[in-house]
Amino acid sequence: MRLILLGPPGAGKGTQAAAIRDRFGIPHVSTGDMLREAVAAGTALGEKVKGIMAAGRLVPDETVGEVVAERLARPDARKGFLLDGFPRTLRQAEILDTVLKTRSEGLDAVLEIALNDEDVVKRLSGRRTCAACGAPCHVAYAPPKVAGVCDACGGELRQRDDDTEGVIRNRLSVYHQQTSPLTAHYGARGLLRKVDGSGPVDEVKGRIFQALGTE
């Protein structure tokens, strides 16, 4: 399977990507994870994109394209892959087409996990992480026993800079302006499979495999 996973931030792409990876035995290629690792490691690429990501803007297409091309050239991607976070623009889709053409490969499907903006804001703005042990929680869906305090170790719960409402809404605006046109692009090619991202994780997973014809 050679797949693309689309959807707004907070739609649950990371969770569902793990299920898809395990079902088909393909690598989950998350450009967001690769870029965040570069920032944390202080690499040249990380320094280049740090400010862009903190503001909720998209990293330049050519830069992300280079990262993806290198990843898809690794041995574990020879029999398939799941791209998460790329492409996000029509230009990135063109870059991906070129990369796949050089490898004599094509896409099997493009999955879009759909979720409305207000649900996205509620999901992301409520996330907290313990500064001491890294344990996650959510102020609405899985609240700590004591506000601001980690249940696991008593450490301080913090909100990521890019999980504030202002940044989230900016990310959604960018998504709708630059990424949503991809649904029309891949829909015209008969590759798009749209899945409702609301509700329990297992229900969404079932919809995904049904859309792929494997459930």
Summarize the structure.
By secondary structure, this protein is of the alpha/beta class. Helix content is 47%, strand content 15%. It has one domain: Rossmann fold (3-Layer(aba) Sandwich).
Topology record:
Elements lengths: L1 E5 L6 H12 L3 E3 H11 L2 H11 L6 H12 L8 E4 L5 H13 L6 E6 L2 H9 L1 E4 L5 E3 L18 E2 L6 H15 L1 H8 L3 E5 L4 H11 L4
Parallel strand pairs: 1-3, 1-4, 2-3, 4-8
Antiparallel strand pairs: 5-6, 5-7
Question: What does this protein look like?
Answer:
- The relative contact order is 0.17.
- The chain is globular, with a radius of gyration of 18 Å.
- It has one domain (2-211): 3-Layer(aba) Sandwich (Rossmann fold).
- It has a five-stranded parallel beta sheet with strand order 2-3-1-4-8, sandwiched between helices.
- A hairpin with a 5-residue loop joins β5 and β6.
- α2 crosses α3.
- It has nine helices and eight strands.
- With 215 residues, it is α/β, with parallel strands linked by helices.
- The chain is 47% helix and 15% strand.
- Might you state the CATH topology name? Rossmann fold
Model regions low in confidence, pLDDT < 50 over at least 5 residues: none
Give the overall shape: globular
* Most strands sheet: 5 strands, parallel
Helix content: 40-55%
Please write the CATH class name: Alpha Beta
Total tally of structural domains: 1
Mean pLDDT: 90
Rg value: 18 Å
The CATH architecture term is: 3-Layer(aba) Sandwich
> What is the string of helix and strand elements?
EHEHHHEHEHEEEHHEH
Percent range for β-strand residues: 5-15%
Number of strands: 8
Distance between the termini: 15 Å
Structural class by helix and strand composition: alpha/beta
